[in-house]
Amino acid sequence: MRNLANTALGDSVSMSKERVPPSARTAPNSLNEQFDGSPAECLALVILWSAREPHRVGEVALLPEECPVWMFGRDPDQPFGDEVQLRALAAAEEVHSHSSRSPGGRAPRPVRFSRHRPEGLDPAPKPAQGILGESISRLQLHLSYREEGLFVHNVGRCELMVSGQVTQASLVTEGDTLYLRGQLLLLCTRRPLQMPMLRAYPHDRRPEFGEPDLDGMIGESSALWHLRERLAVSARSDQNVLVIGESGSGKELAARAIHRLSHRSGKPLVADNISAIPPSLAAALLFGNKRNFPNPGMEERTGLIGAADGSILFLDEIGDMPEEVQPMFLRVADRHGEYFRLGEEGRLRRSDFRLIGATNRPERMRYELKRRFQREVRIPSLNERREDIPLLIRHILETQARQVDEHAGRRANARVPIPTLHPLLLDQLVRHHYVTNVSEVEFMLGHAMAESTGDVLAPIRGPLPQQGRSVRTPTDQSVLTSRIPARRLSATIPSPERAQQALEETHGNVVRAAAALGISRHQLNRIIRRHALSKPRLLRSPKEPPT
After folding, report:
1. Does residue 356 contact residue 314 with C-beta atoms inside 8 Å?
2. What is the DSSP letter of 74?
3. How far apart are the C-alpha atoms of 6 and 32, rounded to whole Å?
4. pLDDT over threshold 50, residue 431
5. What is the mean pLDDT of residues 173-182?
6. 3-state SS of the chain: helix, strand, coil percent to 5?
7. How far is CA 256 from the centre of its chain?
8. Contact, 456 vs 423, CB < 8 A?
9. Which of 241, 243, 236 is nearest to 202 (CA)?
10. Which pLDDT does position 78 carry in this prediction?
11. Are 264 and 273 in contact (CB under 8 A)?
12. Which of 545, 540, 514, 542 is nearest to 528 (CA)?
């Protein structure tokens, strides 16, 4: 269990995760960089889901260690009342009694979120803002740095879950999720204090925040922005590139991005899976052949190398190239594109092509083949950029709904509704360890659709499916399901009209109306105040609870 409220904090925390102290990793110099030249980093919170502000998914709150204490709550720009200040002081006293760090006289800072993108990418970036939520308290979370990570103390009314476990106080490190029930889902990750400026990637290709770019890549993580820059740098030269990445991580998208950004984009990209070429046909498919050779009736082939003249040849799974094919291919790579077509051994041909290879097993490549690539680009897996998973899921669901509509020929007023995810399902998908990446996300979404009823995809019960086999997540799945009443699976805030209707149906009983709406009494009272709703006169019996 992650609940540390009734546990000796020092013993439990120090033994749970052995990590390098954050201060040793993030000590910046005057240029805001670490001593190895990479940008200084800090822990950060990323919005994965928000009931009140879904458009803010992907925004980031940086928590640099220069401020050891942070406060998170609703409307951080408003001054805190006396009660909130007393609770904050009590939380700080409890945390620092177990910590070797001290605030050093610095006042706690409010947690604010903003769009964290490369410097200079957006001409007018939006200022950092607080988060809204119907049941989020004015001071909801008290966050304090420890040597092992960030200690989070829930001092508000909204229930807190850390990585799937209900808790009042817990150590949070990179990869953990924080869920304020029915309101907000956050991911703790590491981010550079400032993303480096893009020097090669064209600014006119920048996507709208959270949307796919022109190459089909989706994400706002620092890992994906670094990849975009690496691809743009690689596109500027004519050197061969080896793209390395796990299955389903987007190696072909990366190859096509290099092609579009290069001076060879005027001609189409030539692509094939080299591991699927039979050795007996490899020479003909690679180099081509004249008509009726080697067998009568054979059609004339240009070959992949000839078709890629002036363009780029992309060979997927090049690490699994048959050994019989490799000597033939190495020869053309060494001779600056010189080759012979089958049946034309006396006629030398030349192809001015650039080679891009992709593999998920570079260790299997022969040295002679690997050294033909002067550049390498590594594709990050979803496990390295978990904050991009909600944006990817949104795009997958929108694409699927659009394809169904196009196939059925529906009019605009008869579109298939796009399903929404319960935040605990999203929590499961974000913390899941991926092997086949995007295809695995689609597989589990399909599993959730098959199990769910209605437009809201509920959390998956039991072990998460993983491409035909079951892998149990580190969280007790019963916590994710049995504690959630069925009426609250929508996790949405009712409209003022629906709230007014519930009040009238319950004759002004706020407790009963809130239960019917699937929200708390505090949430309903805020809706009443915000929208000036009327409460019909209640004739309360002695057995009815007060409002």
Report:
1. yes
2. B
3. 40
4. yes
5. 96
6. 35, 20, 50
7. 22
8. no
9. 236
10. 56
11. no
12. 514
Q: Which two tokens stand for residue 369?
A: 């083949």
List the 177-180 sheet strands across, edge first.
60-63, 41-50, 184-192, 177-180, 160-162, 165-166
Q: In the block, which residue shows the tokens 């822990």?
A: 43
Closest Cα partner for 64 from 88, 40, 47? Answer: 40
Nearest to 327 by CA among 276, 366, 373: 366
Sign of CA pseudo-dihedral 275, 278, 279, 284? negative
Arithmetic mean of pLDDT, 277-296: 82
Cα separation of 70 and 153, whole Å? 11
Count of CB atoms within 10 A of residue 461's CB? Answer: 12
Selection from 116, 129, 130, 131 nearest residue 49 by Cα: 131
Q: Which residues contact 453 (CB under 8 A, 6 or more apart)?
A: none
The answer to whether residue 476 scores a pLDDT higher than 80 is no
> How confident is the model over 527-543, as a mean pLDDT?
64
Statement: residue 483 has pLDDT above 60: no
Cβ burial, residue 345 (10 Å; 0-12/13-18/19+): exposed
E strand residue ranges, 193-247: 241-244
- Bridge pairing between strands 354-359 and 375-378: unpaired
- Amino acid 183: pLDDT: 95
Radius of gyration over every alpha carbon of the chain, rounded to an integer in angstroms: 28
Q: CA torsion 470→474→478→481, rounded to 10°?
A: -80
Closest CA relative to residue 151, chosen from 214, 212, 215, 95: 95
Question: Identity (one letter) of the amino acid at 215?
Answer: D
Mean pLDDT is lowest, of 61-65, 214-218, 293-297, 413-417, for 413-417
Biggest CA–CA distance in the chain, Å, is 105
Both tokens assigned to 279: 């050795």
Terminal-residue alpha carbon distance, the chain: 35
The pair of structure tokens assigned to 237 is 């030269």
In this predicted model, what pLDDT tens digit does every residue of 216-227 receive, in sequence order? 999 999 999 999
Taking phi over 0 as left and psi of -120 to 50 as alpha, with beta for the rest, 2 belongs to alpha
Q: What is the rounded distance in angstroms from the CA atom of residue 356 to the CA atom of residue 261? A: 14
